[in-house]
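Entry type: protein chain
Record version: 2
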Amino acid sequence: MAQNHVQKGDAMPWTNGTGSAVASGDVVVVSAMVCVALGDIADGEEGNLATCEVFEVAKEAPLVIAQGDIVYWDAVNSNIDKTDTNVRAGKAFAAAASADTTVLVKLGA
């Protein structure tokens, strides 16, 4: 292991300064990185965010997403879409049909 290795990087500490509580499983955007809260994080408190792995996330309806599509986080509507002007979330881990309300996303892919 390299002497300057710090950690794997699959989670990072984050201090919630949003003015609202963040619930476990909520999407949190840190700069240009889409993460998922690994536990409830009260406003002003520190918690951990997942920076990778696969999570089930709300998706825009009636959007069809193919497995492997690049997907983005729409902060206004709080869902995944395919609009490249939003923050890149990762790639679709599985396909999602028009009627689906969620999609599996591999963060950071």
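Comment: The chain has two domains: 11-50, 54-107.
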